Structures
1.
Amino acid sequence: MAIGILLIVVAALWRVAGAFVPGGAFSNFAPLMALALCGGLFLPRIWAWLVPLAALLASDFILDHHYGVPFLTWLACGAYACYVLAILGGFALRRNPRLPRVFGAALLATLLFYAVTNSVAWAVDPGYAKSAAGWFQALTTGLPGYPPTWTFFRNSAASDLLFTALYLGAMALAGNRLSASESLPTDHAERVAVRP
């Protein structure tokens, strides 16, 4: 339970801190999507839902207040749907969690998040023309006066792959410690092996 709460706090703080870095260099560079995917892969089911979604809601509450936007919008609903799909993707990977599949799922989650959130922004933001050209603008350059949306994709892809690797490494280290602590002493194992 303590590790779950720590993950919620760290992920939420990391995401909020990135919004205060000048120039938007760390916009969308956050551990939340990787936490959703790896939570679904490794955490007990209730924690797999609770940890990433609590971190997302907590950080959204702070960021929305900071930016002066409503807490629950169509854009937020699209983003939450992507996180839910990432958790479900982690559950699906439990049966066969090979590295290429996990990193492929992380990249797929990034692409899905990018496509969904920018498509929702195109649909609801009056700044975009409701045409194929407007949708293309939403997926590439975004609105004038803001960083291009492709930079958010770049940051999301880098963070999702990096934090997925870090979570996998942490779980591998934890697994090695756990299996080492549960192994039988050598002399006891030998006695068991030679017992008639």
2.
Amino acid sequence: MGRAPFIVVLTAVVLAMTAVRASAYPTGLLDQEAGTALGAVTSLASGLDPTIVDVAVTDDQLLSAGVVVNSIPTLLADPNRLIVDDDLAECPNAQFTSINAAVAAASPGGTIRVCPGEYKESVPILKAGLTLQAPRQQGQATECKQDVPPDPTKQAILEYNATLNGGNPSIGFDVEAPGVTIEGFTIQPDPTFVASNGVGIFTSRFFAGYDIRHNVVQNNTMGIYVNSDGSAPTYVRENCARDNNLGGAASGNGVYSDQGLSNAQITNNYFTGDDNGSIVIDTFLTTPHDIAITHNESVDDGAIVTFASSGPSAFNLTVDYNKVIGSVGSGIVTFNVTTSEYAYNQVENGNFNGVSLHETTSSIVKSNKAVGFGLSGIRIGESSDNNTVATNRAENNGEAGLAATVNSIGNTIKQNHMKGNDPDCYDDTVGSGTAGTGNFWINDFGYTENRPGLCKHATP
């Protein structure tokens, strides 16, 4: 099947620090769906917008940008499509009563329509280009906020177990072929058989071109375990990830990757109740690169985390227009990343830092709003060097509004606005920069600072 054993993910807010890695990478960049291009990363440093944005992304943008809402498909309209109905109640003319039987009968590139019902099976997919489509009533943020038991008369519910998929771990859809689409399902473990190590949807790192959309993944160890070889675009979009805290390695993650991911877009998903991370992109095999994470919403969930815990730095990542409210840890965390962008995100009321950089270099942190975190609003730490941190707003955080610390030097810190923090502006580095620090503070506004000269002080 090509799967590696699960690796326990590092907690999204406590990252093991390793030596700084200096690498150079090609500049080929992935255009992405949410209206900002990764190709614009280098231009932002010289063309900064002096306007400080109060709200990084609106609720309307989160719900609608890039989302196409379709009505329930007419399951019997096309006689050439294979149709599945577990009890033949909703679709009495269906040819199959199990999804596995339809997959076995389908030709590569075929479409399988799955009618409402309860499907107690695990589904390996070994044929390229298959589309598995259920009635698409879920996946939107408005429908994910309420934890309502799924209705088998309206939804196709896959309750997986290990009996058809080689034992441990258990997987709902195990995608081992390129170009596969999974759409409109509710996917959860069968509690009778799965006590730990359950994955809603798995995609193999040996292929690409997946489209995972409009699904509800809930009560799994991890909701969507996405990997790809980058040979074609992969999409994870408009899904609902809820309460994926089943025991096992890498538990508590809505969307997770550690085998390699590139040429991918993770957009317009909604996360709630996942105890570790809403989105965690890591690697133990292939360096993550050219990934757009945009217009996602996380409420009472975990951080958005992009990092490379082993090997070269992750690169060409865009994390823009996301909303993280009430995180169990930080809002957005980076570790061992270069030439990437973190912009126009709204992060509020988490336990640790709003936006936290670790060993992150030559990247843009722009126009984020960080409010009400237990630690700092924006933190530049652990040798995060030569970044541009501009036009961010940090308010009412327990520690610094914007902090540069732990040997992080060469950063341009420009036109940020801080108030109500302790202090607003903080830098404990040493060098030839502003006020004897190793960084350059330019037209930053704040009312308190740990050393004179970092911030311009206006009258509140």
3.
Amino acid sequence: MIAIGGAIGVGLFLGSSVTIDLAGPGVIVSYLLGALIAIVMAYSLAEMAVVHPVAGSFGIYAETYLSPWAGFTVRATYGLVQIIAIGAEVTAVAIYFGFWFPQVPGWTWVMLMSAGLVAMNALQVGNFGEFEYWFALIKVLAIIVFIVLGLGLIFGLGPAPAIGLGNLTAHGGFVPFGWKGVWLALTLVITSYMGVEVIAVTAGEAQRPQESIPRAMRSIVFRLVIFYVLAVSIMLAMTPWDQSGTGITGSPFVRALSSVGIRGAASLMNLVVITAALSSANTNLYLTTRMLYSLARGRFAPAWLGRLSRNGVPRRALAVSTAGMLAAILLAIYAPSRAFLMLYGVAVAGMFFVWIIILLTHLAFRKALGPERVAQLPMRLHLFPYSTMLGIATLLGIAASTFYVDGLQYTVPAFAPFLLLISLAYWSIRRRSPAAPVMEGTGEDGTTAAQ
């Protein structure tokens, strides 16, 4: 449920506005392609998380199987990406509230929601898990209701005449911008699946990770595929894709329900997408806090970030993780119309780097583990190593495509100096403290994890 909370959020409910503009109904194919990449990522991470159920997750794996530099940069990048993503998500909440209260400044909602999320994450991790479970459950139930309601409207199962599937092809065809548009839409569609890695991050605090991690990974991706593909397909069938509004002005799901004239349905859906954005922000705040804590424990960040409160929460790391919220408040004041895409776009390139490093780590992990131990894993990625290498190549291709998407042209160039800066920081830290940190935790067979 935590992984669902991290994945189903603004990428689907708000970012789909941009992907529909790029691909039209063909965005359905984009979601299917994104799912294939997400499956490769989920299975690769599950293999490593079962053997090494540690709090540092893929940052520790990269450090162990690639290099200390890779371990440091992937954790620092992931921490920054999630901090920025938190800002994008609370900005999305402000956009959603504009559906009801267009006269209230967006920064007001950003500030109020940010304060509530920080208070929630300051509680014990068990309380966080309980809150996130209910947040995610609301999203899942809402999507199921949307799918059932949409199918009823499409096939005329109620008193209203059937809408049919004509909207998928009647307004310029299924792929009005060709297959190029379908591919370009992947630049943001793939971010809708970025959240499946949450399961690996929580492995260090999960009970019986050898059982729970494979089970969660198997189910999460396939549930996301069903939710995303069905929900987007029904939404596009309910209303013409070229009449659902352009740009980041609201959720296309809310607009779809507004267009069919069901009283109160649009407002209820707006409440759901607000919950979805808060859920994603809540999860990302948890992730960022744990990544900063992991860096501090590995002596790659100030030691005070690795201190725990009496209830076991790294509150100082939590305080630093609120930087994205502060940025969101400033952008909501000074650049409200561009705030969401500016924040969300910056996070995109960083996540491409993180996923590529994870897949490179998986190649090295399999080589180090050997065929005998691989055969004993409770969950294995099929068609290895070709599936992993194809995932890496596809991610590189998608990252290159951001240069051709309005609003994302500068995401990769902006990431390059950041990668240089954190690399310089890494070498500076290594010179002062040459001793490499060790991995803590045990593998599925009870042996100590690789040092």
4.
Amino acid sequence: MTRVFERIGHVFLRFFEETGLWFRMLWRTILWAFRPPFDGAEWLKQMVRLGVDSIPVVVLTAMFTGMVLALQTYNGFARVHAENFVGSVVALAMLRELSPVLVGLMVTGRVGSSMAAEIGTMRVTEQLDALQALATDPVQYLFVPRVIAGLIMLPLLVILGDALGIYGGYLVGVKLMGTNPIIYEQNTFQYLGMKDIWSGVIKAAFFGLILTLTGCVRGYYTTGGAEGVGRSTTNAVVSASLIILLSDFFLTKILF
């Protein structure tokens, strides 16, 4: 019984330790973000890596999510003769919830893992120590460009996902199910407001911060050689995904 309580205590201590490390690195990243020199080329490189290179994944994820949502909603609404409101449900769901969360999770799996692996490899090969020996802070050199790329590019990817999800719903509702296109378009945008758009963009910015910083932190504190890099990569994806899902609830509560 004593061992059980010891393990539970160890889990809680580990949780609070990692939370403290995460916020410590967040604070250091904020401080270094406003200090020169500013490496614009590296910032643009990370924006392309996180944003432009993730477009194919976002296109497939968002469009098929909108199509599946429209298909399921249409079949359900047809039972109560409310097929004309399919467009409204698809648009609201994509803007408020599905696009930010799904895009955040997909980019976490694609980019967050690679950031953890890259920085973790630099740690086990002592490249981070070499940076410090050359009077270069690893947080400024590695963290800041990636976090800024996440803050800027993920909202843009989510906006793209919103448009594609709504269009995917239109294809299913109008082309496949035969809904009147004029009524579908009117109902799609009739109940939308700027708050619905901005809430998704704000969520996307938070998710971009979470996935980039988590990936960087996991990589920064890697130990154990090549095996440790694998653990850090896995932990980065799992941790960032869980934080995104948990923070989504609280952001929704605050924004609505």
